Amino acid sequence: MVKVEAVHRPDGARNGPGDFFDLLHYGHDSVAVDLSEPRDRANLREVASRADLILESSRPAGLARAGLVAAELVAEGTSWLSITAQGRNAVAVGYGDDVAVHSGLARIDGPDLLPVGDALADSLTGLASAAAAAKLLLAAQARMIDVSMDAVCRSVSGPVADHTFIERNGRWWVESKSGLHAIRAPRGRVPGGTARPLGADSDRWMQ
Hints:
It is globular, with a radius of gyration of 20 Å. It is an alpha/beta fold. The strands form four sheets. A three-stranded parallel beta sheet has the order 3-4-7, with helices on both faces. The protein is built from eight helices and ten strands. Helices cover 34% and strands 24% of the residues. InterPro entries: CoA-Trfase_fam_III (IPR003673), CoA-Trfase_III_dom_1_sf (IPR023606). Pfam families: CoA_transf_3. This is Crotonobetainyl-CoA:carnitine CoA-transferase CaiB-like acyl-CoA transferase.
C-alpha cells in the first residue's frame, strides 16, 4: 500500500499520537508530492494508473485539479473508493462527531445535543469502506464506489430500544428485553512497527 500526501499539507494525524499513526500506516510506503509542480502531478498520475485501488478521502475536486480524474482512471482499469462527508456531488466537509450528530446519532442531554459515541462517523465509515474495498478488489472490472459518511450513519440511526446500564463488581452491562449483555473493557492495540517518514519512498515511486 502506498500513502500519498501533499508535501506542504501532510496528513494531520502525523501531528497526533505517534502510536496511533503507526497503527494506521505501519507497512505502507510514503510518497510526498508537490501538487503545484507539473512533474509531480504527472508522476502521481502514472503511479495512480498502476494501482489496483485508489482510496480517496479528500474532496473530489482537489484530486481532479491535480490531474487525477476518477472516471478516467476507472475507465483505464483502476478501481476508486471515494470517502466523503455527504457524497461526491456535495461540497460539505465533515468530521466524525459533526457528521454523526447531523445524521441523527445524537441525544439531547439538558441544553446540549451530544453524539452517542466518540467520532462514530469515522469508525462506521471505516467499516463500510473496508467492505466496499474488498468488493472492488475482488470485482472482475474496475468501478467506483462513493461512500458517504452521512449516509452510513443514517443507515444505522433510528429508535433505540429501551435499555439500562448496570455496574456489577467493576464490570458494566447492558440490560434490555433481549437479556443482559456484558460490555467489553477497552483493549489497546500495539503497532507492528513505525510508520515511514513523510516522503521516504518518493524517489522509488516517482520516477
